[in-house]
Amino acid sequence: MRAHKAKWAALAFLFALTVGAGVSVQETAHAAVYTTVSTTNLTKTAYHKKSTAGAIYNKAHNRKLATMKGYPNTTWYVTQKATLKHGNSKGIYYYVANKSGAVKGWIWHGYLKKGKAPFGLKYAKNAIAMDYTTGKAVWSKKANTARPIASVSKLMTLYLVLQKVGSGSGSWNDVVNTSSKGLIAMGQSASCGGFLFKSGHKYTVQDLYYAALLDSSNNAAIALGKWVAGSNAKFIQQMNAQAKSWNLGKASFVSASGLENSDLKAFGYAYGSANANMVSAKDVALIARHLIQDYPRILTDGAIGSKTVDGQTTYNYNNLLAGRKYYQSALNVDGLKTGYTPLAGYCFVGTGQKTGKHRVITVVLHDINEFTETRSLMNKAYSYSSMNA
């Protein structure tokens, strides 16, 4: 994963442009003032946008408050209607407010249709919620489209590490070769590092496993791959072979870490002709499902908030865990993997099990609000009766 500091700079910039769940705009309208002919109170009724057209104004229509395009999945509650006059024209307008009441105003009735808004994710380019028990998707958004997945790729890397340890052909206490100048330089890189390979220190498989899982260390992941297969190239071939054995038709790997070749080239670890690992949200969810099924310890390990490894703090950036900003107790989130590069955007694989329900696996790719949208997606998944245990 690239440096997380970049995220907060990006969020600070976006916050200046956005407000709340949608894009709220307050600007002076160029049109002349509307006058009120009549106003009637209505029983509170749910509506949602008919299309991306339309905007919410103050009653005089000299100030635009929000656009329908900026609130694609919002339910609006109508409590009044009014006949407004503008020049020689009259029209019926509804007074609307979102659920929190943070955005409210008047909109022409033709821009709305009755009923609550269908569920959707505003920011994720690709997403899926999968029933872990059945392996079936309960909700998806362009889930079969392959795209760069950044450090979410490490789920496959960690699977193959666990497979080698589990088979007895390797041990948690095996010392991993970390002498590569490229990997040492990578650990010192502000944008591509995360874990320092210190001169004279010996790092075990277990050390680098936690560095790769929790802190998303790229050099740790590559070093582990070389330990598994003997070389970086052979390990990537093994990643693709494993994907093929699972019939993942939308998964192609060129990197053990999730960094793109445009970054890896400087450290001597570029591989293949493609720039990035290309995997669909569905295939990412299936990788996570295999990982949990075959090596359930990943859930215990994935729930660790931070861990000291050889004097270095490896910090888990999963902000849905207990005690974190986006934690929701009912969801019982205990994993699984974050990821970011500028090309892939913010990616997150989440999993948890609500009491009385099947475990859910969620994937959001290229999503600036990866934690809030994952939380919404998990709650949506649990609204389906098929998720009942």
UniProtKB/TrEMBL annotation:
Q: Which Pfam families match?
A: Peptidase_S11
Look up keyword ATP-binding and say if it applies: no
The residue ranges of the Peptidase S11 D-alanyl-D-alanine carboxypeptidase A N-terminal domain are: 124-367
- Signal sequence, start to end: 1-21
The molecular function terms in GO held by this entry are:
carboxypeptidase activity
**What is the E.C. number?**
3.4.-.-
Swiss-Prot/TrEMBL keywords: Carboxypeptidase, Cell shape, Cell wall biogenesis/degradation, Hydrolase, Peptidoglycan synthesis, Protease, Signal
Q: Which family does it belong to?
A: Belongs to the peptidase S11 family.
Q: What's the protein name?
A: D-alanyl-D-alanine carboxypeptidase family protein
